[in-house]
From TrEMBL:
Lineage of producing organism: Bacteria, Pseudomonadati, Pseudomonadota, Alphaproteobacteria, Sphingomonadales
GO molecular function, one term: DNA binding
Position of the signal peptide: none
Stretches assigned to the ChsH2 C-terminal OB-fold domain: 59-122
Protein known as: DNA-binding protein
InterPro entries, per the entry: ChsH2_C, ChsH2_Znr, NA-bd_OB-fold, Thioester_dehydratase-like
Keyword terms: DNA-binding
DNA-binding keyword on record: yes
Domain ChsH2 rubredoxin-like zinc ribbon: 20-55
SUPFAM superfamilies: Nucleic acid-binding proteins
Superkingdom, taxonomy of origin: Bacteria
Source organism (scientific name): Sphingomonas turrisvirgatae
Amino acid sequence: MSENYQRTLPVIDDENRAFWHGGADGRLHLMRCQDCGYWLHPPGPVCPECLSDGVTIETVSGEATVEALTVNYKVWGAGMQVPYVIAIVELAEQKGLRLTTNIVGIDPDAVTIGMPVRVVFEQDEDVWLPLFEPRPA
Ligand SMILES: [Zn+2]
């Protein structure tokens, strides 16, 4: 174990590069099928809805709703800040388009299911982690 707590950063490949690096411009980038409009997350080479390979990167609004959450109070490593919220959020663009993330900018105990949130990015080395903070409804 290292002295300081570090997130485990994702392994970047051609399919997920836009998602993890796209936050450099402050926008959330996801793959979208150009034939049927379906958003793909996690990314893949083929649309699961219509089997088209005409998928490309587009930006989403970054607005989402908290769908499920848990508050972690346990310190797993030195330098780790607790408590913090691990949440599943559903993006505004599509029913079932979900990300697992952290909710920041609010008392962890005040986060509720159904809370409207918006994306913010935290840079860690060459990765921009999409986190979410409360937004006005
Ligand atoms: Zn499609």
